[in-house]
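Hello support,

Our group uses your service weekly, and this is the first time we've seen a run hang past the timeout. The protein is VOC family protein. I'm not sure whether the cause is the sequence or the server load. Input pasted verbatim:
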Amino acid sequence: MAVRLNPYLSFAGDARQALEFYQEVFGGTLRFSTYAEFGPPDAPGADRIMHGMLETPDGLVLMGADAPPGTDHIPGNNFAVSLSGDDDAGLRGCWQRLSAGGEVVIPLEKQVWGDVFGMCTDRFGVPWMVAIGRPRS
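Update from on-call engineer: The timeout came from a worker crash unrelated to the input. Re-ran successfully.
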């Protein structure tokens, strides 16, 4: 996989239920990570979904998560476009172009789960997530 483009939805605490519903609709394989897996397991909201990913046999990919603990979920502003893959140079180039003239929300840097990740809003107000994973062998 070089680069993947897909929607990323944000939820107010019901990401698991929503993504399970979408799995019923589209089929496929669903994977979850919680905030507890990468932070204090007893923190408020630790059982919420930090990242969920539905992949179907037809090639559809839908990602989603609960708003991070302590942040507000704003209905109507609950999506981002996700670019992910293992093409480090290509994805860093996309990041530079997307964030130019926009707002960097999370700098593109290595995260606790091991991937390089960043969030920005481009100059047109579209939110983007860029995730650079390690190449799989």
